[in-house]
Amino acid sequence: MKKILTLTIPVILIFINSCNKENSLIPDIYWGEVTALKNGESWNGKIRAAPNAIFGYGFDIRIDVYNGYDIQIESFKITKIPYLERYYIIDTIKSNVDSVLTGASYGTLLGGDVIGNLYNVFPGDINNFITVTSYNETTREVEGAFEVMFVKRPIQGYIGDPSSPDTLRFTNGIFHTKVNELE
User: Fold this and answer.
1) Where would I find the H helices in the chain?
2) 49-52: which pairs have CB atoms within 8 A and are 24 or more residues apart?
3) 8-21 pLDDT, tens per residue?
4) Closest CA to 76 of 111, 98, 42, 108
5) Is the dihedral of CA 157, 159, 160, 166 positive or negative?
6) Are the CB atoms for 146 and 3 separated by under 8 Å?
7) Nearest-CA neighbor of 117 among 148, 90, 154, 92?
8) Which of 111, 132, 135, 140 has the most crowded CB, counting CB atoms within 10 A?
9) Which of the four pLDDT bands, split at 50, 70 and 90, describes residue 56?
10) What are 110-132's pLDDT values in tens digits?
11) Of the candidates 160, 60, 171, 67, which has an alpha carbon nearest to the alpha carbon of residue 119?
C-alpha cells in the first residue's frame, strides 16, 4: 500500500500542475518582460508589441495585468513609438488621432470585461516619456524605459470604481519585448 501511495501522489501532482498550465485563460499572445513602480509599489504585467495598425506610425506596446484567476484587471498601452533608439515624450494625444506623437492610455477592468476606470496622460508633466534603448531589426526585439503619470478620466453617467486613485504614476519602468506582426 505504501508503494502505491508513493507512486500515485507524484503522478497526481504532475497531472494537476500540467492541467493548470493548459487551462490558463490568459491568451498566448505575450512575449517579454515589463516591470515598474505604480504609485511607488512594485508592478508588472504581460507585454506584447505590434506595428501601429491604425496609422502605421512606429509600433504600439500593450501591457495587460491579470489576477490570480486569469481575469484581466488592467490594460496599459503606449502607442506610436518610433523604432529609433532615443527618448520620446508621451503626449496627451489619443491613439485614434492621426498624429506622429507618442501617446498612452490606461484602464482598469472589473471581471475582465467591464470598464472600471479610464485614465488619460496627465498634461504638462515633463516626466511622461518612453526611451527605446535597443531595437534589433532582425529579431524585432525592443528594450527601453518609461515613466508616465495618468489622471482619472470622468465618464459621463458612470461612476466607475470609486476606490481607485485619482492619479497613477508609473516610474522606473523597464521593458523587453518583440514587435510581432499583426495576426
Assistant:
1) 2-22
2) 49/142, 49/177, 49/178, 49/179, 49/180, 50/179, 50/180, 50/181, 50/182, 51/179, 51/181, 51/182, 52/79, 52/80
3) 444 443 444 444 55
4) 108
5) positive
6) no
7) 154
8) 132
9) confident
10) 888 888 899 999 987 679 999 99
11) 160
